[in-house]
Write a structure and sequence with these properties.
alpha+beta; Butyryl-CoA Dehydrogenase, subunit A, domain 3; 10% strand; globular
Amino acid sequence: MDFSDLLEPFDRRLEAASSPAAVRAIEGGGPADAMWDAVAASGFLDALVPEAAGGFGLPAAAVQPLWQALGRHAVPLPVGETMIARALLAEAGVPIPDGPIVLAVAEAGQAVVAPCGLVARHALIEQGGKVGLVALAPGMAAATGVVGSLAARISCPPLSQGFAAPAAGLRALGALLRAALIAGAADRLVTMTAHYANERVQFGKPIGRQQALQQQMAVMAEEAVAARIASQIGCAGGFPPSLAAVATAKSVASRAAATIAATAHAVHGAIGISEEHDLQLFSRRLHEWRLADGSETYWNRLLGAARLAKPGRSVDFVRTELASGPSAT
């Protein structure tokens, strides 16, 4: 089945709802209800929910372009997290609440930083192999102090009830999402940077004609493509994915995020660090998503350990662990 037609209407809805002005308003403490309602009305929050439970029953590979679109539009809401949470809750037979949901992995009494936690109503928390849904009461989600960030430090209470955590856990699902978000924001920054380089004239010609900048932008574009391909590989492994698929996606995307953000700011120069410029809306997110749910170092160590635990050649490990379809899970 071809799912490519799903992206265009979703992308149009995001373009209308998540303009840079709307993103800034929510980051400044404004209400997020209108943007959330616009996304929820699309029905895509149930993209991963099984058809038997009233959802679309889409595979992760079909949802990956939707997650990527969220990053490309810098959507300041936990839309991807809510898609994942609603799918897990539906499969477990747990009633699904309205509103945005974030994902958190922490023991009882611990606090964990969750992207978009300030605009969430619930948190799906994993503790000791068990997952439970918790309503975020006042005081449970505190701002991190990072300027413009909607991430929150969530105090995780002990779970009174719950269901078994998915294979590889919530962190793996969150990392898979972050990789796709990074790929989307990276794509947007490549386009923004190329446009600026062709418009900015210095010494009588666009700076984009300078060979040194062309080299930097070529590497930037390569990193963006690598992040996108890695994210697609991760999502091709099914839902929930294998640890190797997640580790590949997140490690490659996180590594690329730093280079892409740095190059974009280098080409834009002083204008790029100004609050008024849209560049920072995306570069800030790249750095936040790079660290969220494990940096490239964290996932490279897990991937290396998984490889050492398997006998045989590395090429065989890649073929078996990163194979497409449910068999890889």
